[in-house]
Amino acid sequence: MRRNSLLFIYVFFCLTLLNCNSSDDALSATDSEMNPNSGGDQDSGITPSPPTQGTPLRTDVKTFIFGHSLIVHSPPLIPTPSDETTVPHWMHVLSQSAGYSYAVDGQYGFLPQHDNLPPIAQWGFDIASGVWNSDVEPFSEANFNTILLTAANFVQYQPANTPYDGDNPDNTTPLSATTDIIDWVGQQEEGITIYIYENWPDMAGFVNSFPPSQEEFANYNANTVGDFHNWWLDYHNALLVDRPNVKMIPVGPIISKLLTDTTLEQIPILDLYEDAAPHGRPTIYFLASLITYSAMYGIPPPSDFEIPTTVHSIVRDNYQETVNFIWNELQNFNDENGNSRVW
Questions:
Q1: What are the structural domains of the chain?
Q2: Using one digit for the tens of pLDDT, what is the confidence trace for 189-248?
Q3: Span of the secretion signal (predicted)?
Q4: Which of 8, 92, 234, 260 could pair with 27 in a Cys bridge, judged by C-beta atoms 3.0 to 4.6 Å apart?
């Protein structure tokens, strides 16, 4: 029953992405006026110590993902040879190329569904290995060392401490659901690292129809690095008040910068996205994985990685420049006090 419920949620997301309500501490209203790479005046209490390019934070990633189709899009509208429209697929091949290990489990849903704990190991992949059999052992026995967690991409019209619209008898908010998950996970696995995966916004509100015009796509990307990103900064700042070790990976904003500020702007929109949700094609999930890999391993992806042809040729031809751009963005993703939001 529970598996079917989660699957229904995912299908519903893929088809409509409709809006999905405990009051929490007020979020800072000033954050949205600050530089997108600044996180306001919240001191995380951590001395900044970003990794160097030659020293990984870890070489063995065992992660559980509280996610949805902006991390794992399967099956895609346009078929692929394997799981190329999933972040775990690319995380696996990148880590293999570097001589590191990667194992992953996860489930579909939005934060209110993920807050129905314990989770289950719902996903399986062609080549990325799993960690946990949730049918026979508790979460605490899996020995995960990282968590990747993301919110829906269509709730940013109101603050993260505002209850979800619709049927919400518990007045759940994105912030309350997240803290419930983080606290539960911390009880199960002491010392586990939590990463917030900042995704990219729903495109439907920016386009008359898909694919977008050049002007519509420019407005969409401006929102991704603007108001949408500011929502995530406020959300992260609120989490840091009592949970200073929670990290955030700005996946969506870095992708938008790559698609507007680098040679990757030449990639046709239909080679990036397949709908206005917007679910990506392999190139988008590959870029998302380059960012996620750099954050979680604390080192850029291997320079000699052989990129398959499922990824657009412009990315293949500009791979090192893309990796360098991502690394620089992550190195500079700090709060107002200079503390890294990523590491």
A1: 60-332 (3.40.50.1110)
A2: 999 999 999 999 999 999 999 999 999 999 999 999 999 999 999 999 999 999 999 999
A3: 1-22
A4: 234
